[in-house]
């Protein structure tokens, strides 16, 4: 059972302290949404967990500090879907998704049958089978987003961090991706998703972490975190919050004045 611990995590980039004293314990089988306004520090937190930026405090996966793990080892434990990734190489979709298996391969080894099966399954789950022979750099924004998600799924890691996995997706594919992330969690993975769509966050996430100006403002169930007061304080909006119905929704109504 994977367990991610953050103790007093802080990050300074250049002269700016962009994360302050973040504490959280995240366990397997949970879909955790990271929410908060632009510039709050959500991506920085994801990057700190992946040991891509130096962080103060302690970030550990199953008791082992992420910064001390060999990169391939960390990549096998936590699959990472970065925000707005650009593609440089004209690879086919199938080969690009296959890159998700790299952390499992030795320096000279080739893809084995288990790798091929993982690639196939990941393409199926991200609904990109029909795109498999296309050149990834020639895809639409939404198609590319699903292919990159497939690459992260192909790792078959016990934990997944997806930074804005819904960006560029049409409503149908947004639902598919949230269903998929939810399903990964139900099958025992720890799934962390940076989300801007608060209705999706409310409907699908088991737990939300709300960040503003680098600080953790609230951590708990969507009902506890997505209150009108929190939304006013953090986003500066008046919102219609319905957490009672079977399909919770958060509708921003306007800017909060005064
Ligand atoms: N290399 C850097 N040097 C200085 N400041 C940086 C650097 N990278 C990011 N920042 C700042 O850190 C803060 C947090 O950025 P981050 O990308 O983590 O925010 P975010 O919550 O993911 O935002 P968004 O929702 O807009 O993607 C922002 O104010 C950003 O300008």
UniProtKB/TrEMBL annotation:
Residues 4-238 form the ABC transporter domain. GO terms for molecular function: ATP binding; ATP hydrolysis activity. Keywords: ATP-binding, Nucleotide-binding, Translocase, Transport. PROSITE patterns: ABC_TRANSPORTER_1 (PS00211), ABC_TRANSPORTER_2 (PS50893). Part of the ABC transporter complex HmuTUV involved in hemin import. Responsible for energy coupling to the transport system. Belongs to the ABC transporter superfamily. This is ABC transporter. It comes from Sphingobium lactosutens DS20.
């Amino acid at each position: 059972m994977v367990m991610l611990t953050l103790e007093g995590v802080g990050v300074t980039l250049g002269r700016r302290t962009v994360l302050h004293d973040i504490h959280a314990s995240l366990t397997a089988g949970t879909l955790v949404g990271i929410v908060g306004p632009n510039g709050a520090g959500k991506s920085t937190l994801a990057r700190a967990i992946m040991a891509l930026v130096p962080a103060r405090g302690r970030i550990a996966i199953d008791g082992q500090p992420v910064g001390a793990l060999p990169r391939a080892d960390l990549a096998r434990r936590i699959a990472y879907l970065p925000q707005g990734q650009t593609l440089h190489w004209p690879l086919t979709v199938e080969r690009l998704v296959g890159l998700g298996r790299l952390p499992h391969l030795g320096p000279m080894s080739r893809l084995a049958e288990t790798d091929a099966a993982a690639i196939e399954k990941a393409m199926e789950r991200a609904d990109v089978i029909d795109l498999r022979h296309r050149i990834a750099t020639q895809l639409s924004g939404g198609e590319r987003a699903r292919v990159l998600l497939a690459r992260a799924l192909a790792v078959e890691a016990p934990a997944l961090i997806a930074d804005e996995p819904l960006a560029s997706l049409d409503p149908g594919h947004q639902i598919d991706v949230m269903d998929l992330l939810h399903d990964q969690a139900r099958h025992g993975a720890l799934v962390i998703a940076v989300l801007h769509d608060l209705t999706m966050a409310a409907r699908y996430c088991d737990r939300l972490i709300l960040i503003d100006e680098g600080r953790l403002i609230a951590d708990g169930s969507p009902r506890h975190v997505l209150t009108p007061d929190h939304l006013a304080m953090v986003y500066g909006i008046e919102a219609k919050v319905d957490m009672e119905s079977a399909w919770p929704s958060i509708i921003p109504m306007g800017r909060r004045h005064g």
